[in-house]
User: What shape does this take?
Amino acid sequence: MLGDIYKEKHLPNKAFYYYKHAVSLEPQNANGYFILGNKYRDAELYDQAIIEYNKAIEINPYHIDARNNKGITYFDKGQFDQAIEEYEQLIQIKPDFVKTYYNLGTLYLIKKLYHKAVDILEQAIKLEPGNIKAYINLGDAYFAIGNYQRAKESYGFVLNIDPDNVIIRNKYNESAVSINNGKK
Assistant: This one.
């Protein structure tokens, strides 16, 4: 794509001119707006990215990647409530899309909605049993609500795959100490 060539030459205005031109050639192609949204997001032009994702979604309300990336863009902007809303809608549309559960669980964790984080991250793991990031966040959520045994189990799963992970080893040990000190 000609826009990519200009992007590599650090000429963003020309790059975006050609990206927009490409979209104008097929204005009913949701993927064109999705790709343009990604280009804006890559350039940290988040408001413009959201506009393009909305255009893709308007053309195709079931454009899963546009909805997902719109949620990520809200996250990047620090607009966590809007990101949560987007992911909750996406779950209604595509209940087996693992990224949504992981992203939503992460947001719940950030917002200190720990019980919601546990529920959503458990679903992410059901859909993708080897999702290490989901296990880490699940461990963090369990730890935050004081369920140190379940936190230890989550961190233990990660350590079985990545035994040299010092951060997770420390979290695992902290959970074990909490259990030994008479906590859950």
